[in-house]
């Protein structure tokens, strides 16, 4: 989430996908049909070799393991951040019952009648409420996804009118869930700092009152999953992103690895973590944000709950001096984080294009 954009383009009526499927279950409107170069293929969804599996980090070995366990797991974390930009974390300390409850409530929200969900509309050019985000023109292709996005912390970024009153206990459960995810992010940032041989609390101290937002994505089944995308390819503007994928959902998240779209086979009870643009800038490109997207399924729906965690809007960011030298010259300029956040939410999702905002000109192609 970020401050309201300076300007926004008013977009005409956008059909709710769930309602569309009720009335025309086989229809895929032209506005959702992707060009040939963007369409997913069967090969994209095929199982990958074990060498292509996203790394798994056991947080309990970092928090309470012996010296050897901690050292081994820290090395795995470093390699995951540098080579993948994604990893799954197990034994993360968040109560599994809480994960089940927030998933249940999210599914109940998306199952509400349309008129109830429309009480929380996402205004054009903003990223809070129910609807479609990152839509800026009438001819822009839309994602096959309904979403509910909410600002969480600091309190001033919230729009209380957009927090659902139904289902019952939705808001209070989201508060508890978000506190737990915030603590997880703070822990992960400590170990990421250690993996870079930095002071353990460097990122947490630098971030100030960190910005936290949540987005719940619901992907209905699609009669022609080969024509659409659930979510366009993009990198995240955050420092860290935490993704909870609903149980029993078909594989939908894919990451771009060595120019190949790799599906993430989620481990039970794990949370998926990825590096955002902000961390790429701070580490001078050592830990890179990675393009990812979501695909759909012909018969199964899918839910994901995504938390974005980023520095305070008022701080200035740039590569850390400790990570700049003759071998790794400075790749990014210094900038205000709020300024970058406004830039991010006022541009459509288009790979890593938004990160060009931060690149020093002679590194624009790096």
From TrEMBL:
Domain Fe2OG dioxygenase: 202-311
One Pfam entry name: 2OG-FeII_Oxy
UniProt entry tagged with the keyword Oxidoreductase: yes
Annotated GO MF terms: metal ion binding; oxidoreductase activity
InterPro entries listed in its UniProt record: DIOX_N (IPR026992), IPNS-like_FE2OG_OXY (IPR044861), IPNS-like_sf (IPR027443), Oxoglu/Fe-dep_dioxygenase_dom (IPR005123), Plant_2OG-oxidoreductases (IPR050295)
Keyword terms of this UniProt record: Iron, Metal-binding, Oxidoreductase
Protein family according to the UniProt entry: Belongs to the iron/ascorbate-dependent oxidoreductase family.
Protein name, as recorded: Fe2OG dioxygenase domain-containing protein
Organism: Protea cynaroides
């Amino acid at each position: 989430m970020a401050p309201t954009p300076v300007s926004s383009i008013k977009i005409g009526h956008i059909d709710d996908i769930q309602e569309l499927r009720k009335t025309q279950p086989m229809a895929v409107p032209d506005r959702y049909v992707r060009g040939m170069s963007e369409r997913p293929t069967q090969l994209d969804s095929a199982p990958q070799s074990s060498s292509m599996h996203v790394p798994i980090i056991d947080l309990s070995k970092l928090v309470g393991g012996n010296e050897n366990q901690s050292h081994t797991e820290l090395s795995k974390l470093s390699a995951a951040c540098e080579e993948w930009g994604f990893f799954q974390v197990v034994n993360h300390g968040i109560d599994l019952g809480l994960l089940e409850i927030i998933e249940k409530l999210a599914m109940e929200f998306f199952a509400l009648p349309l008129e109830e969900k429309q009480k929380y509309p996402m205004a054009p050019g903003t990223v809070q409420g129910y609807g479609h985000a990152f839509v800026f023109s009438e001819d822009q292709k839309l994602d096959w996804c309904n979403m509910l996005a909410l600002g969480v912390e600091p309190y001033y970024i919230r729009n209380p009118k957009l927090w659902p009153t139904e289902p019952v206990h939705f808001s209070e459960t989201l508060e508890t869930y978000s506190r737990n995810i915030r603590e997880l992010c703070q822990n992960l940032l400590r170990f990421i700092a250690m993996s870079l041989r930095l002071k353990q609390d460097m990122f947490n101290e630098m971030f100030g009152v960190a910005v936290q937002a949540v987005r719940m994505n619901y992907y209905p089944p699609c009669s022609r999953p080969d024509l659409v995308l659930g979510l366009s390819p993009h990198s995240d503007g955050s420092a860290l992103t935490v993704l909870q994928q609903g149980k029993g959902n078909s594989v939908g998240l894919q990451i771009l690895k060595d120019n190949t779209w790799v599906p993430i086979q989620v481990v039970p009870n794990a949370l998926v973590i990825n590096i955002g643009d902000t961390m790429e800038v701070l580490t001078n490109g050592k830990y890179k944000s990675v393009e990812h997207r979501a695909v759909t399924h012909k018969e199964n729906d899918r839910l994901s709950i995504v938390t974005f965690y980023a520095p305070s809007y008022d701080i200035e960011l740039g590569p850390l001096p400790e990570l700049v030298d003759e071998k790794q010259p400075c790749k990014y300029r210094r900038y205000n984080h709020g300024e970058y956040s406004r830039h991010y939410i006022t541009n459509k999702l288009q790979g890593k294009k938004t990160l060009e905002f931060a690149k020093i000109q002679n590194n624009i192609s790096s």
